[in-house]
Every structure is written in structure tokens, then in C-alpha cells.
Amino acid sequence: MMRTALVICFCALTIAVKAQDTVAVDATTDSLEVSPPTIPVQPPEPFIRAIQMNILYRGIDNPVSISVPGYPDSLLQISASNCTFSGTGKRLLVKPGRGSRTVIFVHVLQEGTPIEAGKYEFRVKPIPNPIPYFAASCYTDTIKGFKLRAAQGVIAKMEYFEFDVKFTVTEFTMTAWVNNQPTVMRASNTDGTRGNRVTTEMKKFIAEQKPDRIDISEVKAIGPDGYTRNLAPIFLVVQW
């Protein structure tokens, strides 16, 4: 008869017991009972997500993956609030609108009838501001005069952001300091409209006056979300 535990009587034999086995000695029968090791059952694979990172960024395509175990993409019906979206469940591109929340609803088709499978709510945040650069410098810096003379304009860069987002600088103001006297010049295009390029006036002043300080302020840029941003100023000390 099969037993769940193996009983071995003491005799002139050497008995090897594995470290993970359970051993019990019965004093009344001089027997050694060795229980076989318990084999753990593999638990289901966990589903892990960052609670505070349920974020979609306004104005750009955010990739979202949706799946329901046992149902192919062809049997999923997806709808959402405060956004437009395209693609399939495995690769859905969601572009939020102006609201602060986007909710994605998922239904599955069972014999042609849609059954609600669940929904998920995302927070909607604006794209962070880019960092303006002038003469390859940002914020506060000290530069050589030749770098200032070679500068062509102000650009905006996204740093440490998950998406490849482009911003266009639409205007800025340059204040050039000579002997603590400021000269203010506004960037403009050849047609007189505001722009991000260094003007002929600016280039001439820099070449002739050799300013010891340059301030770049009133920097504005527009991104894919259509909003105009006011960016940080730049303060440069110039070494000639």
C-alpha cells in the first residue's frame, strides 16, 4: 500500500536524508519517518504597474497596450473620453485633449455581443517646458567671444523626456551690456516678424562693441500641443 510518508526501520544501514526533507523519530517503534519535500506550486505571473505613472501627455501620441486574456484584438472594442486614438490594442496611440483626465473603456465581443471588460483612467499632463540654448549654452554660463559671434539664434531642447518632441522658438529679446550700459534688441525675421534668429543688428553690435554680458530673455516657443511657452532666460558672461 502506498503511503504519503516513507517509513524506514533502524538497521545496520546508513540512511541519507536530504536537508530539505522532514525527519521524525518514533520512540515507541524505533522507526525513522522521512516526509518527502513539499514542491512549491508556481504562482500566476504578477501584473505590476506604477500607481503614480498613469500619465498621458497632451498633444502627442502616447503608446498604450491593451489586451484581454483569451481574446484577440479583433474581439476587442475600445472607446475613450477626452482623446483621439488609432491603432490596435497591442499598439494603441492615444492623443489626449484639453481635459485633465482620459478614460479608456474596453469591451469584448462574445457571440457578437459587446461585454464590458473594464476601464482605466489616466491623468493628462502638459508636455514639460524645453530648455532654451544660445551659443550652445543655457541658464548661466561664461563663453568666449568667438562663440558669441558665431551664434545663429535660440533653440529649444527637450532633455530627460520620454518622447522625441520638437519645439520651435518663435521670439526672444537680447540685452547686450557694455560698461554696464544695456542695449535691447528684439529678434525678427527678414520680413519683420518675430523669430528665433540673430538679426543683422545684433551681429553688428556684437562685432563692433564686444559686449561683456549678454542676456537672452522673453523666449517663447511652441510645441506639438499648440501651446506657446515662456521659457527660462539665459545669462552669459563674455570673454574677449
Molecular structure report:
The chain is mainly β. The chain folds into three domains: 6-35, no CATH class; 51-125, Immunoglobulin-like; 131-239, no CATH class. Helices cover 7% and strands 45% of the residues. The strands form five sheets. Strands 12, 14, 15, 16, 17 and 18 form a six-stranded mixed beta sheet that branches. A four-stranded mixed beta sheet has the order 4-10-9-6, with no helix packed on it. A three-stranded antiparallel beta sheet has the order 1-3-2, with no helix packed on it. The radius of gyration is 34 Å and the shape is elongated. The model is unreliable at 1-21 (pLDDT under 50).
Features:
single chain, 240 residues, mainly beta, Immunoglobulin-like, 3 domains, six-stranded mixed sheet, four-stranded mixed sheet, 2 helices, 18 strands
Outline of the structure:
The protein is mainly beta and 240 residues long. 7% of the residues lie in helices and 45% in strands. The chain has helices spanning 145-150, 200-209; strands spanning 6-9, 22-26, 31-35, 55-57, 62-64, 76-80, 83-88, 91-96, 101-110, 113-125, 131-134, 140-144, 154-157, 168-178, 181-186, 213-222, 228-230, 234-239.
Count of discrete structural domains? 3
> What is the structural class?
mainly beta
Q: Count helical runs.
A: 2
Strand content: over 45%
Helix content: under 10%
SSE map:
Elements (H helix, E strand, L loop, with lengths): L5 E4 L12 E5 L4 E5 L19 E3 L4 E3 L11 E5 L2 E6 L2 E6 L4 E10 L2 E13 L5 E4 L5 E5 H6 L3 E4 L10 E11 L2 E6 L13 H10 L3 E10 L5 E3 L3 E6 L1
